[in-house]
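hi! just following up on the protien thing from before. the input was this:
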Amino acid sequence: MRGSDSKDTIANEVPKISIRPESRPSGSTLQLLRRCYRFVSAEWQRERREPLPDEGFERRFRESCVQHLQEWSISEEREMHLGAGLDTASGVLHEVDVVARGSNITAILELKNRKGALPDKNDVIVFFAKILDYLAGNPALVSTEVCLTFLSSSSYEPSGLAACLGLGIHPVAADTRPIPILVNNAMIMESELRKGLKVTSDTRDRFEDLCAQLNNISSTLNGTWLDNRCGYVSDDRILLRAVGSLPTAAIAQQVRQLNGDCTDILKRFRSAKYENEYF
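and the predicted 3d structure came back as:
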């Protein structure tokens, strides 16, 4: 028998706080980021390591994209023209690890599988500078959605995670779901509640707090995404929107905490669903 403690009280009311529509990612962005997170959190752990500096990390990820993102165009190895025959404003070409082009979206990815050194702010800024060099010579890049992604086989050094968030780059690692995936997970849990799933009031309260924090972070970072920061005007002109100084170190800590919270709340929802169905 359950006691009177509110943490043990079963509740299935519609949540008071949910994910706002403007916080929800596009389908293409979510599809690409899901592939990234699935690869680094599960598939890479089972892959045979190769005698290469990155142990075959980039090659295996590219192969997984070709297999699972069949409607996307995936760049070849050592791509120097951003997957579309583009030159840079500086005249110096840069190797970009993976460029994936979907319907009305370009995803540009930096991959790191480096032992002994976590990705830091310099790694992130160098990646961002490459993209700006291409963008400065090719304004039409931002005429469609652009998804910048940094995929790491390890955790991030705090400054690296903060730099990703401040520069509109989605950080993905085995222990780091990017914000669009956290938002999507919250949307799935909200759908279960609306279908009548019964969870404890404590779990529902934690879920609502997760939604509130994700709404706040999404709003704070909205201006950092490249296609929001940069606007296409003409083939030789870009509009650059200034984004005020953001407390990215604090936001990075919050994202780490939200990842842990999301994992725990998901476990509670799965357990509640199992109990609802079988008991």
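Residues 248-278 form the longest helix (31 residues).
The first strand starts at residue 10 and ends at 11.
cheers
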